[in-house]
Design brief:
The complex is a heterodimer of chains A (256) and B (244). Chain A has 256 residues and is mainly α. Helix content of chain A is 76%, strand content 0%. The relative contact order of chain A is 0.14. Chain B is elongated and about 60 Å long. The chains are: A mainly alpha (256), B mainly alpha (244).
Chain lengths: 256, 244
């Protein structure tokens, strides 16, 4: 038991050391100039969500038509099933991440760590005000990025690797800005991949339901495709329209 | 500016300033919603008869091809109208109603100030929003009269909201709408000459669907951003700054 406790303490210590060292390195890289810092702020804010929407569209139209894949690894029907799997994994991953954020009271680096911030203080204060300072672990951005990368990997290995690299890049930006600790991103990736693996595992059991949804797109394209677009648009906006609508109906602000 | 312009702004403003919730609803509906709706209309037109075109590429035989041509025509006309509207905005510096009229604003002053800062005080004429919606409406008339009239109703509703919020005068809206109609008329007139370019482009959607639809998604998302990314790209690549 003592060995186990000592080992856990040692692991925690070195995780914290690595977390702090990586945060410093990423922050020094992002804060190398005000221009680079602004660019990181802009890119890390919206780009992952826009790219996620684009990636889902790409997956929807990937694969060979017909029942036997010839050029690609899988048929379009299988690829479309995977899109639905990824969407459900995202929803599950977000809820999982939110639940963990509520349980684990970890503060974001912007609240506790000394960071280099080469932009005017009033601008930085606005950015900080838009963040909830508590509940850093795990990152829901990481859930999004790594679920999408994982989903892409299952339909096209090469693009999956590319999306994985993009996910790492966006993760470094968010760490460098002080929004998350490196382990938050790792935690988010694990939550996302866990959710994805779980839904892929049960995919063949729910394939009838998936096929029914896909069939609806063939039967009522004039309705389902525009609805699909609106859903993806809202995904690209971090579901701000959905939460705005909920806030308007309830008459008070609902944070997301 | 005529008296009817002034009177209509005040009358419409009174309607939406009934309470805070109606005003916020007007703010929300007049911002992104029409653009998302336009993009959704493009998607609906594109897929209404299926996902693949026939090989013949004959407008009279293949409804999928016909609709895709209409979408391309609308896009060409709309982009033209939108850019011309932006240029006219600069040349014809007309202050917005919210810059000088006493409007009823039943929301917190600091929130309204943010809205005013985002919209700006000048460059009211013509409305670039209505130019784009006008082009989409004109395109809908190419598909069916009923769809066209539905487009007119939606455009009138959203234009009325923007007038009520004090962003524009009704005459800005009429001018913008006319610009949209002209844009689509021009695009329709030249589309036969562009067929050598348009047909291979449309065929790519059947040959490389994943890549092309991913690209199309980016274009549609940019439409919802009022071409902010496109204008940003033009500014970076060619140093062309399109105001607004």
């Amino acid at each position: 038991m003592e060995i186990l406790t000592a080992w856990a303490t040692w692991l925690l210590h070195w995780t914290l050391v690595a977390d702090t060292a990586l945060l410093r390195w990423a922050n020094a890289w992002v804060a190398r100039s005000p221009k680079a810092f602004y660019r990181a702020l802009e890119i890390s804010h919206r780009a992952p969500w826009v790219l996620a929407a684009v990636a889902l569209v790409w997956m929807w139209f990937w694969g060979d038509e017909g029942v036997v894949p010839v050029r690609h690894r899988l048929t379009r029907l299988e690829s479309r099933r995977r899109v639905l799997t990824v969407i459900i994994s995202l929803v599950g991953g977000f809820f999982g991440a939110r639940a963990l954020q509520a349980i684990i009271p970890r503060l974001r680096p912007v609240a506790v760590a000394p960071l280099q911030v080469p932009i005017p203080p009033h601008v930085w204060d606005q950015v900080r005000a838009s963040l909830e300072l508590q509940g850093a672990f795990p990152s829901d951005h990481a859930v999004l990025l790594f679920v999408i990368a994982g989903g892409l990997y299952t339909v096209c290995r090469r693009l999956g690797w590319f999306a994985g690299l993009a996910a790492v890049y966006f993760s470094i930006l968010r760490v460098g800005l002080g929004f998350h600790w490196p382990t938050d991103m790792v935690g988010g990736a694990l939550v996302g991949w866990g959710a994805l693996a779980l839904v892929i595992f049960v995919e063949r059991h729910v394939s009838r339901l998936w096929d029914w949804v896909i069939l609806l797109f063939y039967r009522y394209p004039r309705v389902l495709y525009p609805l699909g677009f609106v859903f993806l648009f809202d995904l690209s906006q971090k579901f701000s329209a959905l939460f705005g609508l909920i806030s308007w109906v309830l008459g008070h602000e609902v944070s997301h | 500016m005529g008296l009817w312009d002034y009177t209509l702004v005040l009358w419409l403003n009174q309607l939406i300033a009934y309470n805070e919730r109606t005003f916020f609803a007007a703010l929300f509906l007049s911002d992104r919603v029409p653009w998302v709706l336009c993009s959704a209309v493009f998607v609906a037109l594109w897929f209404i008869h299926g996902e693949r075109m026939a090989r013949s590429l004959d407008e009279t035989q293949d409804p999928v091809y016909r609709n895709r041509l209409v979408v391309v025509t609308i896009l060409l006309g709309a982009v033209f109208a939108f850019i011309v509207a932006r240029i006219l905005n600069v040349l014809w510096d007309r202050p917005r109603p919210l810059a000088w009229m006493e409007l009823q604003v039943p929301i917190a002053p600091e929130i309204w100030q943010e809205v005013v800062t985002a919209v700006g005080l000048g460059e009211a004429f013509p409305s670039d929003h209505t130019a784009f919606w006008g082009a989409v409406t004109a395109g809908l008339f190419l598909i069916s009269r009923r769809a066209g009239w539905a487009g007119v109703a939606c455009t009138t509703f959203f234009a009325a909201l923007r007038v009520a919020l004090g962003y524009h005068y009704p005459s800005d809206m009429v001018a913008g709408f006319a610009l949209g109609l002209i844009g689509v008329a021009l695009a329709y007139a030249i589309r036969r000459r562009l067929i050598w370019l348009v047909n291979p482009f449309l065929q790519l959607f059947d040959h490389r669907p994943a890549l092309m639809y991913a690209f199309a998604m980016l274009v549609l998302l940019d439409i919802t951003q009022r071409f902010a990314w496109l204008f940003g790209l033009l500014a970076i690549l060619f140093g062309v700054h399109i105001p607004g």
